[in-house]
Amino acid sequence: MATVPELVASGVYRVDAVGLRNVINVLMLENDDGWTLVDTGVGSSGDRIQEALAALGSGQEDLKRIFITHQHDDHTGGLPGLLEWAPGAEVGATAHEAEVISGRRGYDPQHNPLLRRVSRNAEPPGVSVGKVLREGDLVSGFRLICTPGHSRGHASLLRDADGLLLTADAFGCLPRKIRVGVIKGFCTDPPLAKRSAEKLLAEDFATVVMGHGPVLRSGARARLREAVARCRY
Predict the structure, then answer these.
(1) Which of 36, 45, 62, 138 is the most buried (most CB within 10 A)?
(2) Cα pseudo-dihedral 139, 73, 118, 170, rounded to 10
């Protein structure tokens, strides 16, 4: 079955990066000159993203930018394949994440000791990042907010015009409950992840798209506030 993108808001589409709904979310942002992709899912997600673009009447020449919120392979896994398909796309990330994605620095250690042992030999994708972004920079009309903790250079995005917040993994609902940093063990610095979540709550937003979980519309702020209140990091 062809991958059909979900319209979240004007010019913003959500794509299921794997065959299960809302497990891994990729965002496509429409621009005057084409599309910006926010994250790339896992290694097999490239075909689904290409199908989603095709469903919107676009092809490889229309993918202009890829912004990576953070280094983890469920967000960067599709990056090498997509760049083979659309080699003209510019890759952007924060400075620390760019160092990791490019392979100049290893992955940030995860909080859980078992996860650290299992992933100790894992290698980043080794993809050059052409644009390094900082706090307040714009990504297709979205303001970058640095939200470290899940990883050291993790970033979220907010479109101030309509209050659409893309948290990436600053929050996540996997499997069923919204949590700060998705799961504590995956975070590099859980207390810092909580402070970043609190930072997002200080922003003016209405609709929330997380890296993992359903789109939050009605009561989105209250649900994120509850997740922070439950957090014991």
Answers:
(1) 45
(2) 40
